[in-house]
């Protein structure tokens, strides 16, 4: 027979024999409520709360099975699953962290190179395309003139850097000037500090440099951006060269 607790509505299956001879006092194992369950076939009897009734006069339904058992079994199964994966949780967290770091390094490689240019060689070694140093910028209106200064021949170089891209760009820290021979071989080179600043789309920034010892310089110069490193990892990548400008000296 199915009976319900008058207080918490928990339901229990009670053997019919317990209620065939006379009404019985039952105690809910869930909330402790005590009530009188009527005899089978007898008229309705009002239930009463007798929590102070003697223990020997009460039939406690310990053998009854609440309907909440499936939830308890599910909770137990979930706990056992957590116990099984707990030893591997550190490795799972470590793997997730590594994936996050690598993904961020690839997505934000342009920003990483801007902060620390030498890291570009790491991307190149891993065959991950990197932003070309100065990509989107161009040299324009370059002039190079030999002039006398304090009885010595010096080279006065000036020109403009223009942003041809559709976004603001940071001008690389240095410009390298390379003296080129008639057979296209480099002879001498020097570098000077560029007007390092953020340049808006279409904006033009002027630069200039003065080189004192130019006796060994040929008439042709090639300009390119550089990070200032001895081994510049960003001068070329995937067959593309850093933006260049050329000029004849006079």
Task: Supply the helix-strand structural class.
Answer: alpha+beta
The CATH class name of the largest domain reads Mainly Beta
Would you identify the regions where 5 or more consecutive residues have pLDDT less than 50? 45-58, 231-241
How many beta-strand elements? 16
Radius of gyration: 43 Å
Mean pLDDT: 71
What structural keywords apply?
250 residues, alpha+beta, Immunoglobulin-like, 3 domains
What is the element layout, followed by pairings?
Elements: E1 2-4, E2 11-13, H1 17-20, E3 24-27, E4 34-37, E5 59-60, H2 69-85, H3 89-107, H4 109-115, H5 120-125, E6 137-149, E7 152-163, E8 169-170, E9 174-180, E10 186-193, E11 198-199, E12 204-211, E13 220-226, E14 236-237, E15 240-241, E16 244-248
Parallel strand pairs: 3-5
Antiparallel strand pairs: 1-2, 3-4, 6-7, 7-12, 8-11, 9-10, 9-13, 13-16, 14-15
């Amino acid at each position: 027979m199915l009976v319900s607790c008058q207080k918490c509505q928990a339901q229990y299956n009670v053997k019919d024999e317990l209620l065939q001879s006379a009404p019985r006092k039952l105690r809910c194992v869930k909330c402790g409520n005590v009530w009188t369950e009527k005899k089978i076939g007898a008229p309705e009897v009002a239930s009463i709360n007798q929590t102070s009734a003697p223990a020997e006069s009460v039939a406690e339904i310990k053998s009854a099975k609440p309907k909440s058992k499936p939830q308890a079994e599910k909770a137990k199964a979930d706990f056992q699953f957590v116990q099984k994966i707990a030893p591997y949780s550190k490795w799972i967290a470590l793997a997730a962290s590594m994936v996050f770091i690598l993904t961020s390094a690839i997505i934000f490689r342009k920003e990483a190179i801007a902060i620390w240019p030498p890291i570009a060689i790491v991307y190149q070694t891993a065959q991950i395309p990197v932003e070309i140093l100065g990509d989107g910028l161009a040299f324009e209106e370059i002039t190079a003139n030999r002039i006398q200064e304090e009885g010595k021949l010096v080279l006065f170089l000036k020109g403009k850097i223009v942003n041809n891209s559709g976004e603001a760009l940071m001008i690389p820290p240095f410009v390298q000037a390379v003296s080129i021979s008639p057979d296209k071989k480099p002879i001498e080179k020097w570098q000077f500090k560029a007007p390092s600043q953020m340049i808006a789309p279409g904006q033009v920034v002027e630069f200039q440099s003065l080189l004192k010892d130019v006796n060994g310089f040929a008439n042709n110069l090639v300009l390119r951006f550089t990070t200032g490193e001895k081994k510049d990892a960003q001068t070329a990548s995937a067959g593309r060269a850093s933006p260049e400008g050329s000029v004849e000296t006079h």
